[in-house]
Amino acid sequence: MRSVDIILKKRDGGVLGPDEIEFFVHGVASGSLPDYQASALLMAILLRGMTPEETTNLTDAMIRSGSRLDLSDISGPKVDKHSTGGVGDKSSLVIAPIVAACGALVPMMSGRGLGHTGGTLDKLESIPGFRTNLSIPEMKASLAAVGCALIGQSSAIAPADKKLYALRDVTGTIESIPLISASIMSKKIAEGTDALVLDVKTGAGAFMKTHAEARALAESLVRIGKSFGVKTQAVITAMDWPIGRAVGNANEVIESIETLKGRGPVDLVEGSLDLAERMLVSAGVASDRAGAKALACRAIDSGSAVEKFKAIIERQGGDPRVVDDYSRLPKAPKEHVVTAPSGGFVTGLDAGLIGRASVMLGGGRDTAEDAIDPGVGIIVVATVGDAVQKGDAILRLHYRDAMRLQAALPLIEQGTHVGPVRRPAKDLIVDEVV
Ligand code: URA
Predict the structure, then answer these.
(1) Which of 89, 121, 180, 187 to mutate to test the pocket of ligand 1 (most atoms within 8 A of CB)?
(2) C-alpha distance from residue 93 to each of 90, 342, 375 (Å)
(3) Atom 5 of ligand 1, nearest CA residue
(4) Which of 84, 107, 155, 238 has the CA that lies 20 to 30 A from 429?
(5) Tell me, what CATH number does 228's domain have?
């Protein structure tokens, strides 16, 4: 079999057989397929799509590129969540400790920043010392000891996704239902969870811009999860402007900790509780949503959720003192304030453009080799719906490099809108697929 023939077949709209998909995924994971051919096939898949059967075969081959964990020797229900990618979406950092504090086990395999969206691994790694590259025995030991393990793809688990994810980030091949489905579901099935709640984002800051696209992605994800025996459901949520007030890696860790201490912004709290409730019911820890909400709120109010986050940080080699002392987290030295050009209301903060601006500041990658700067980012001082006077701060940009700031500012300007009429509130939860 020749790689170029597989690329040509997909480029011309053909349907790939399981052996061809296996050949591609094996080549990616083993390193025998050069990045240029992998990227060409990714682009052909993005442009031509895949049938549901091809997508399932791709997921299956990506799972089998490493181990599928068997966590049955650790007693207790295992449940996880995953988002399809947002801006300011730090809900995994909030939900994992809450759900673990309520008694479910959370084996969470996440990704890095992808395109204009942030990634849980990059956020966690802004905590000094935090290791996301746990070995399988270390991951299982963490799960048994503190009820949670926050890890990334490795050479042992989902190695094909590790490579494809990094390539897609820098080759314009993210926004594809089959590629997103196989990426997410290969990680989630390989990590050994019993149940899964997916947060499928829709809107300006999401990969799926319309409700119809988000619904199609949600259906694809749920179909694959169920076909591999994982109890899966998806919620479709609005991603038009940044979630909460913080965008950028260390900034988002601080906002997550504040949320665990009971001081989170309303939208982040609402979205995180919705997902946590679904997880607790799905894991059988609570019999209904009301009971799950009571448990989750008690974990925040009693301090057990934030203590759980401390324990997770310590267990994974990080400095738990960051929880009480945010000055231990990286922070870019300079600040630029974006102000309201006139009085009125903030009517738009385009999450796609603001996410791209954060990447420009150094919070994301331009090439697969780039290191990110965990201390840069954006604080939303006035969000959509807030009243502002002329000259009031809307955004604070934390930056290190003036050239990067100059590249980010036009995106910010294009994405920030003030008008005379308050924009009506929008529902966060748009739809679900169960
Ligand atoms: N999250 C993932 O893990 N993969 C994607 O492709 C998108 C979001």
Answers:
(1) 180
(2) 6, 36, 17
(3) 180
(4) 107
(5) 3.40.1030.10
Domain containing residue 11: CATH number = 1.20.970.10
322 and 334 inside one domain:
no
* Best residue among 42, 58, 82, 84 to mutate for probing ligand 1, ranked by most atoms within 8 Å of CB: 84
For residue 65, being part of any structural domain is answered with no
| Count of Cβ atoms closer than 10 Å to residue 263 Cβ | 11
Task: Please state the φ and ψ torsions of residue 239, each to the nearest 5 degrees.
Answer: -135, 65
Domain that holds residue 357: 330-419
The reply to whether 98 and 145 lie within a common domain is yes
Per-residue pLDDT tens digits of the chain, which is 434 residues long? 999 999 999 999 999 999 999 999 999 999 999 999 999 999 999 999 999 999 999 999 999 999 999 999 999 999 999 999 999 999 999 999 999 999 999 999 999 999 999 999 999 999 999 999 999 999 999 999 999 999 999 999 999 999 999 999 999 999 999 999 999 999 999 999 999 999 999 999 999 999 999 999 999 999 999 999 999 999 999 999 999 999 999 999 999 999 999 999 999 999 999 999 999 999 999 999 999 999 999 999 999 999 999 999 999 999 999 999 999 999 999 999 999 999 999 999 999 999 999 999 999 998 888 899 999 999 999 999 999 999 999 999 999 999 999 999 999 999 999 999 998 888 999 999 99
87 within a domain of the structure (yes/no): yes
Among the candidates 276, 310, 326, a domain finishes at 326
Is the pTM higher than 0.90? yes
d(CA 5, CA 20): 10
